[in-house]
Automatic annotation (TrEMBL):
Bias type Basic and acidic residues, positions: 1-11
Full protein name: CobQ/CobB/MinD/ParA nucleotide binding domain-containing protein
InterPro entries per UniProt: CobQ/CobB/MinD/ParA_Nub-bd_dom, P-loop_NTPase, ParA/MinD_ATPase
PANTHER family documented for this protein: ESX-1 SECRETION-ASSOCIATED PROTEIN ESPI, SEPTUM SITE-DETERMINING PROTEIN MIND HOMOLOG, CHLOROPLASTIC-RELATED
Transmembrane segments: none
Region (Disordered): 1-49
Domain (CobQ/CobB/MinD/ParA nucleotide binding): residue spans on this chain: 219-360
Superkingdom of source: Bacteria
Record-linked Pfam families: CbiA (PF01656)
Taxonomic placement: Bacteria, Bacillati, Actinomycetota, Actinomycetes, Micrococcales
Amino acid sequence: MADIRGEDHTASRRTGGRTAAIDRSDQDAPGGAHSATAIPDSLNIRVDLPPSPRPVMPDDEVAVAIDDVAVDPGGLVAGPTTTSVEVITPALAGASVRSGAHADPSPYGALLAADASRLRRERVSTDTGSHVAIVDVPADAATPAEIPETSESLTADRLIDLNRTTRPAPHGGFNRFVYEASLHLVNLGDSAKARAYKELSARIQRRFDGGARFVPVLTRKGGVGKTTITTLLGMALADARDDRIIAIDANPDRGTLAERVDRQTRETVRDVVTRASSIGGYTDFSAFVSRDETRLDILASDTDPTLSEAFNDDDYNVVAGLAARYYSLVLTDCGTGIVHSVMRATLQRADSIVIVSGGSVDEARLASETLTWLEANGFGELVRNAIVAINLATQGTHLVKVDEIEAHFQSRVREIVRIPYDPQLAAGSVVHWDELRPVTRHAARELAALVVEGLPVDRGGH
């Protein structure tokens, strides 16, 4: 007959994160019969409760809490002693004492005043609980300095309250028609096209401090429209800005920049160098330049082939130094090539550069080699800030993938602008800004805005 022994049975139940363990010893009845009324000898129940939450001090008690300071019993002196403690109440920042003013009856006045001083109370949580600590706030963080506004911040948009009488008349065909048809009672504001035009003008009109800015226009290959791009850039800048813009033809060979405007004088850069000592103001200097309808001044290069090579870097520095006195922006048509003596003097003064590329394979490759030459000769920063103007009026543009040319230059320079074909520019004669196609004027204005955005706003007294 089998020997049946008593066994311990343990039942475990988990409910709501709590665990109950029951130890039970059952006795078998004689003969193998189980006793239904058997009661366990021992019953053990274990309950696991979550840890009690860490006490958190409310925010309103942090400001008036007193720090817990440990006291060293060994430092106490036996016997009665008397110690005088001077209590200094920190003054509230910015408060002024007036005659007849009553004292603050609040017992927390000193603590609240400390919040306005350089000491700040903060609650810090550590392994032992939550404590209040006093944090020293730096002087600049406690009392931030206010930067005074300049006079340029007082703009008309900020000061004038626009209403039906002061709001300017809208620009744009339909909006203007509604304004006139309603006898100036309905003003829909500028059209989307007019707003975009004004936003682009605002980008071009950004102000500068600290002297003139120099922007050379260069390339290694002739015939890609470098002089055309210089003319368009200068006209776009002069048309939108109210300060003086000049374009200098620094081509050691005979340049044609002055032929893009109605020439009003036969003076050249050579005459400026020769009579530099007699130039005492803008009136004197203006006698050497020609001005177009956009107020762009152009200083012609030497027209005598026998003297063209004599224009060197020293001569350019003389002309550039005089131009910097009377103009805010100085554009330089650098001529063909980049290894002549004037180029280094031009690049040393440059704040940004414009690289001109044509739409053909060899023209794009030579423009990229120009960037490589600049990087190899210590002008890498100018390359990263450069703008490439792709002249689509050159031959072969319709045969190449201009998008691929643009993608190549995007990896090397800041921005790329496409200058579309325009019949007036293709003629190679005098350029009239108002007679250019709208798409051409827009591309030139976009180029001008990008150039201005890459120029330093303030560089000291350079």
